[in-house]
Amino acid sequence: MRPCLTPLLASLVPGLAAAAAAADYHELLTLRPLPFSQLLASFNFKSNSSIADFEAHNFRLFPRSLGQILEYAGTRELHLRFTLGRWDAETWGARPWDGTKEGGTGVELWAWMDAETDQQADENWLTLTNALSGLFCASLNFIDGTRTSMAIDVKPICDQSGDCVLQMEQTIDMVMDVNRSKRPRDNPIPRPPPTHELVCDTSKSYHDDDHCFPADHLNGQDWTLSQIFGRPMKGTCPLADAQVPPVCLQVPDSRVVYASEGSAEIKDESGMSRCYTIPPQSEFALVLPKSEAKTPEAAAKELVEPVQPLLYAERSFTGHGQEHGGVQAILTNPNNVEVEFVYLESLPWFMRIYLHTLSTRISSSAAPTTNSSELIKQIHYRPALDRSRGTQLELLMRIPPRCTVFLTYDFEKAILRYTEYPPDANRGFDVAAAVIRTLEPQVMNLRTTSLLLYLPTPDFSMPYNVIIFTSTAIALAFGGLYNILVRRLVGADEVASPMAKWKLRNLLSKFQKRGIGRQ
User: Fold this and answer.
1) CA distance 29 to 242
2) Dihedral angle of Cα 89, 95, 96, 102, to the nearest 10 degrees
3) What is the pLDDT of residues 478-490, one digit of tens each?
4) Tens digit of pLDDT for each residue in 42-101?
5) Is 75 helix (H, G, I), strand (E, B) or coil?
6) DSSP 212
7) pTM, whole model, 2 decimals?
8) Which structural domains are found in the chain, ordered by start?
9) Angle CA(201)–CA(204)–CA(209) in degrees, nearest 5?
10) Whose CA is closest to 350, among 314, 315, 322?
């Protein structure tokens, strides 16, 4: 169980047999309309190279810069993910690619590397993070032992005969607002549609002739590729496999779709997807016209029904104050089968959790006889060391069908040195998302949202205030004391008369003139 979940794993991997497999390249764009004028655009780029070419430094499709880093750091498998935003599973359904391509908010780096000792693995990890930091122009060099937690997957794949290829896969999943994409570039401010184009939701109790609540099920379900991406698609990559359709659209067969001339449409047997082959060196246009459905029931048939995920997960902070706090994870199983999964949290060292407060509570269940204490099957806990490593909490859990479980624990906030605070200390500290990997009935990955932890923040202006106050006090005290010590008071009657000075000056000048005359 642990080799699949530990962010950094040091292990010996058997040598891979060399193969003379030819390198190939595939690219795919998958479009899936989502409810409420959203559109999922998933870009997938995959290239395969033989291990023999990689070891001979014969780089054709695989990037040389990345290959040299992997070889020097002894890395066998690498997952580097840059993530922004969150996936709304309740509205959009299961995650793309079963969550295997996604990461937590921010940067997430996983690596499996060859190492005989833990010390060697740490050295290889440091080498890998520093090299990737320069290659991707990111602050990956800050992922040290205290923070051990784009989408690029590099892993060796071998068949039954022992022939292996090195596969590099890059996936970019983005959810776009269709209505915002269709706005003019010079006027991005949204404008209400004309009155005759308004489609009202008649199910609202306040619907009337002079009241109209827009029906969201029909909003933003018509678009073209040039409207979404700002330009048409100009052919395919010459290196890509011509047998693989580069564009797929996930809409029912009943939906009308227009494609440019010269392209061929290939419909899936399920009736919920279609792919298009694009002629080389020619523009490809794809038009999804507005649906003619007038009711929510009819409009629902124009979209592919979202797949219900195995698990819903939420996480938040509880408690108040600057000394203690708590974490609450809400895990919901909406299916009729039991779900087994692994829950992993990598916490910073300044979150000192109380393991004895770890508890589970069942809110609602179809099996009321289930005991909440039996939900956690195994626990792997590695405590934190101050300023050396973070806390790792790994739980093997089983949730009954139709059940919501609350997982809670308390923690203590450590006191940091003033030099350990970032420049934006009042913003808080980011806590990495929890990683959940379902084991039964099928393997899927999901992440919770990241958290923002507030720690007691010192007054960083205090040293400057003290310096200014002390300098002012010293200046005032030193000035007065120096004036008293150096200044000499003389009476008016003790001062020599100006006339006497004038007579003495004249007398000296006469003596000087006489001396000059005798010479």
Assistant:
1) 14
2) 110
3) 888 888 888 877 7
4) 998 888 777 777 777 777 777 888 888 888 888 878 888 888 888 888 888 888 888 888
5) strand
6) -
7) 0.74
8) 2-300 (no CATH), 312-453 (2.60.40.740), 466-518 (no CATH)
9) 70
10) 322
